[in-house]
C-alpha cells in the first residue's frame, strides 16, 4: 500500500521496488546499514525532530509495542536530521531500545533519497516505509506535518508480509 497524505508531488520509492540502501550513525555513533537487515522485515520511520511532542508520542508507542514488531520479525529504524548526540540523549530520556539514526550530515540526504525531505523547514516529513526481508518496499505512508501515524497500519502491513512468507503472525 502506498499512501501519501497531503504531500504535493512526493517522489517516494515505489512499492515492489528495492528500498534505497543507506548507512547512518545510530545514537551511539555506530554505523547502521539498511542492507545489513536482509532476512528481516524493517520499518523505517522518518520523523521531524527528537524531543518534539508528536514524534515523542509516536516513538513511545513503538517502544511500548516493540514486542509486536519482534513477533513479525521486524526491526525498527527511526531516522531524523538530529545529531547523534541529541539522539543519544533522547533515547536515554525515553528508554528507546531501537536504533535512532542521524541523517544530520549531509543534512537530510537519506530523507531526500526517500523523497520526504522538506527543504523549507530543513526536516524530514513523517514517512513510514515497511521493507520486506528481501529489501523490497511493501508499504509507504507519508503524513503531513502535525498528523501522527497510526500504529495499527504498521501491524496490518507487517501481518500481510508474514502471511506472504508463510510465517504466521502472533
Descriptive notes:
With 170 residues, the protein is α/β, with parallel strands linked by helices. 29% of the residues lie in helices and 25% in strands. The protein contains 5 helices and 10 strands; from the N terminus they run E-E-E-E-H-H-E-H-E-H-E-E-E-E-H. Strands 1-10-9-4-5-6 form a 6-stranded mixed β-sheet. It is globular and about 35 Å long.
Quaternary arrangement of the chains shown?
A: single chain
Poorly predicted runs are 1-10, 165-170
Largest β-sheet summary: 6 strands, mixed
End-to-end C-alpha gap: 22 Å
Mean pLDDT: 89
Summarize the structure.
This protein is of the alpha/beta class.
Summarize the SSE layout with pairings:
Elements: E1 2-4, E2 23-25, E3 31-33, E4 41-46, H1 53-64, H2 66-71, E5 74-80, H3 84-94, E6 99-102, H4 109-113, E7 117-118, E8 123-124, E9 126-131, E10 137-143, H5 151-165
Parallel strand pairs: 1-10, 4-5, 5-6
Antiparallel strand pairs: 2-3, 4-9, 7-8, 9-10
Search tags:
two-stranded antiparallel ribbon; disordered C terminus; 29% helix; six-stranded mixed β-sheet; alpha/beta; 25% strand; 170 residues; 5 helices; single chain
Amino acid at each position: 500500500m502506498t499512501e501519501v497524505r497531503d504531500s504535493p508531488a512526493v517522489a517516494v520509492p515505489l512499492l515492489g521496488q528495492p528500498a534505497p540502501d543507506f548507512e547512518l550513525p545510530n545514537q551511539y555513533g555506530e554505523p547502521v546499514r539498511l542492507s545489513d537487515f536482509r532476512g528481516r522485515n524493517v520499518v523505517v520511520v522518518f520523523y521531524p525532530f527528537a524531543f518534539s511532542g508528536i514524534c515523542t508520542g509516536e516513538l513511545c508507542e513503538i517502544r511500548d509495542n516493540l514486542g509486536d514488531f519482534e513477533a513479525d520479525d521486524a526491526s525498527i529504524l527511526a531516522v531524523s536530521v538530529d545529531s547523534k548526540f541529541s539522539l543519544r540523549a533522547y533515547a536515554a530520556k525515553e528508554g528507546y531500545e531501537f536504533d535512532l539514526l542521524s541523517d544530520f550530515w549531509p543534512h537530510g540526504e537519506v530523507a531526500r533519497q526517500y523523497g520526504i525531505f522538506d527543504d523549507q523547514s530543513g526536516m524530514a516529513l513523517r514517512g513510514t516505509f515497511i521493507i520486506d526481508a528481501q529489501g523490497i518496499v511493501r508499504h509507504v505512508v507519508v503524513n503531513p506535518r502535525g498528523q501522527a501515524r497510526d500504529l495499527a497500519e504498521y501491524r496490518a502491513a507487517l501481518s500481510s508480509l508474514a502471511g506472504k512468507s508463510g510465517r504466521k503472525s502472533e
